[in-house]
């Protein structure tokens, strides 16, 4: 599947087209006026997809870690590593865009919101993944141990996403009685940009990851020839 | 040898080794005692809600330290020898049982000293003990595999806390939440649901450890 996707370009064009649509229509479209949110509801197209994209890309990373434990090949390890990098990048972007938004909506950049805390802990988990990779010298051993940690970490990451909202009430729109874009508030206009935005940002992430994978594979090849 | 027999023999070996080199286990116990004294001397008296939070943080640090050494005391050669005679699941299962026992005893001692110096404001004791027991099993399940991972890398002393702390946060949060309910004596159906979630987490982590350890073992 990896080979087919990297040799084809249609999904990259699709991603760019969706993002152009998101940028233009997302900023121009008339949006419902909701208390607290007002115009910042447009952040739905830029901040929220970061979170969705992060989870989807980390899911890819998990899948390739499982593949690696079945086949012990280099390519699945490279894919798992590079997708985790992009997942981490999206996590950081989601956190920062959320913090800017929260500064103006909730009054504080860090308000102890469950989603915010979960993302921060998720980032710590995946930073630890890269420190672990750095701490092992042997290539085959590093690939194997990183795959084991990735699977173990993802289980607790899922636990984290479901668990943290149990601990404190959320400030996020749509939770704890806050106004949001659910069925009652919304004709399907926001949805019409939101879903394409999620797909577009995820495809962009996959594109970045595929560049990283190709670079790493070339680098490894050159290393082998020396 | 049968599977259960292998676990039994390995467990017996671990306990015997621990008994022969008493300094390791006394070190861990002294670590708890010293940490509790540090907390006590810093606070002198604490609010109930601070009491429970600090108690779990003390246990977290003590547990990471206690479990971190599980795979370090054996040389690679001895690991190779085990590889030829027992199944990997038996190794991880024996370590899991051993660490659970160790952490249960550790938690008991920590709670004992902690209660003596800082008082014990807990109102619903049975629930609190269930919370501590589930915590000991959960920490053992979570840290044993991570100790096996850290043992494979260089600089494992640094690696162990950074791998374990973020991963254990969801569990720690639930343990503290249930602990608070036990402390204030306000257990409701939500608290018992949390206990159920903790059980599910423990079982999931144990299953995952049993599944993943064989890959770590093979070189």
Provide a concise account of the structure shown.
The complex is a heterodimer of chains A (226) and B (219). In chain A, 74% of the residues lie in helices and 0% in strands.
Commentary on this structure:
The complex is a heterodimer of chains A (226) and B (219). Chain A is mainly α and 226 residues long. Chain A has helices spanning 2-7, 10-28, 48-71, 74-105, 114-134, 139-167, 189-225. In chain A, α3 runs antiparallel to α4 and α4 packs antiparallel against α5 (114-134). Chain B contains 8 helices and no strands. Chain B has helices at 3-20, 22-43, 48-68, 76-85, 88-118, 125-152, 156-184, 189-217. The longest helix of chain B has 31 residues, at 88-118. Chain B is globular and about 55 Å long. Chain A binds chain B through residues 69, 121-122, 124-125, 128, 131-132, 135-137, 141, 144-145, 147-149, 151-153, 155-156, 159-160, 163-164, 166-167, and chain B through 142, 145-146, 149, 152-156, 159, 162-163, 165-171, 173-174, 177, 194, 197, 201, 204-205, 208, 212, 215-216, 219.
Compile the SSE list and pairings.
The complex is a heterodimer of chains A (226) and B (219).
Chain A: H1 2-7, H2 10-28, H3 48-71, H4 74-105, H5 114-134, H6 139-167, H7 189-225
Helix pairs in contact in A: 2-7, 3-4, 3-6, 3-7, 4-5, 4-6, 4-7, 5-6
Chain B: H1 3-20, H2 22-43, H3 48-68, H4 76-85, H5 88-118, H6 125-152, H7 156-184, H8 189-217
Helix pairs in contact in B: 1-5, 2-3, 2-5, 3-5, 3-6, 3-7, 5-6, 5-8, 6-7, 6-8, 7-8
Looking at this protein, list some descriptive labels.
heterodimer, A: 226 residues, mainly alpha, 7 helices, globular, B: mainly alpha, 86% helix
